[in-house]
Design brief:
Blueprint (H helix, E strand, L loop, with lengths): L1 E2 L15 E5 L5 E10 L2 E9 L11 E11 H4 L2 E4 L12 H12 L4 E4 L5 H10 L5 H19 L4
Keywords: Hydrolase, Lipid metabolism, Transferase
Organism: Hucho hucho (huchen)
Protein name: Phospholipase A and acyltransferase 1-like
């Protein structure tokens, strides 16, 4: 597996409970929680669309999404450990809190929402108990001034 240089992490090899970031393009990444190995194969728990029909998001939403356990290599060959909130929020214990939460969520219907519940929100919710998406916050910084201006002019 191709590890990328880490930001917000002091170790290269993931430990169960670490957030893994899989870069998709220049702007967005997919996120999951490193679950550990099964028969020597590393696995990641991640929020994903359930079937091909829901990959076309309607206004950034997909109704048929779920937390799924997949081999890391299936999700992406390049990734980095990205425990970006560790400095301000203590991570929850993997074996007593995170793993049972992942196991409980698997197979349940979840609405994916690019702005309010994406794979990064789900990963931070598992690890820290709070939903946060730094990539969406960066987008907000860019679009919020435009939205404010349109709102003032009553065009939004």
């Amino acid at each position: 597996l191709g590890l990328l240089p880490n930001r917000g992490s002091s170790h290269l090899k993931p430990f169960p409970g670490d957030i893994l970031e899989f870069p998709l393009n220049k702007y967005f990444s997919h996120f999951g929680i490193y679950y550990g190995e099964r028969d020597g194969v590393p696995y990641v728990a991640h929020l994903t669309c359930r079937d091909s029909e829901t990959k076309l998001l309607l206004f950034g939403r997909a109704l048929k999404s779920e937390v799924k356990l997949d081999p890391v290599e299936v999700v992406g060959r390049r990734y980095k450990v990205r425990n970006m909130l560790d400095e301000n929020h203590p991570p929850r214990d993997f074996y007593s809190v995170v793993k049972p939460a992942i196991d409980d969520m698997m197979g349940k219907d979840i609405t994916f929402d690019i702005l309010f519940h994406n794979s990064e929100h789900q990963a931070t919710l598992f690890r820290y108990g709070l939903k946060k998406s730094t990539q969406i916050e960066k987008v907000y910084v860019q679009i919020l001034p435009t939205w404010k201006e349109l709102f003032k002019k009553k065009k939004l």
